[in-house]
Write a structure and sequence with these properties.
Elements (H helix, E strand, L loop, with lengths): L2 H19 L6 E2 L6 H22 L15 H28 L3 E2 L2
Antiparallel strand pairs: 1-2
């Protein structure tokens, strides 16, 4: 292999991983909605409502608020744990809202 091929190889691996993981996120289904078009429309509406509810209950932080200027390992770890806790709490509110609206994860 030449140098150009070696430089492009990691890009190919990343592209393959992205394609392999595309669509692997959680998929919601609502057993009480038979029509796929209606389900898709309701999912979009309910997702927006539940995201708003979750953001009101646990306001997410954005941009620089998620970073710690103190470079010590302790400070970085504390910030990381705080970010994960916030994200988990927000997701819990979102998931509960979706469940109350009749949505379940597709198995």
């Amino acid at each position: 292999m030449d140098r150009k091929t070696l430089r492009l190889a990691p890009l190919g691996l990343v592209a393959a991983a992205v394609l392999a993981l595309a669509g692997c996120g959680p998929t919601y289904v609502n057993p009480s909605i038979a029509d796929p078009a209606d389900a898709k429309q309701r999912l979009a509406v309910d997702t927006a409502i539940c995201q708003q509810e979750a953001n009101m209950a646990i306001p997410p932080t954005y941009a620089l608020e998620r970073f710690e200027p103190d470079p010590t390992i302790e400070a970085q770890a504390t910030r990381w744990v705080a970010n994960v806790s916030e994200d988990d709490a927000n997701l819990d509110v979102f998931s509960t809202c979706m469940r109350h609206r009749g949505w379940r994860y597709k198995k």
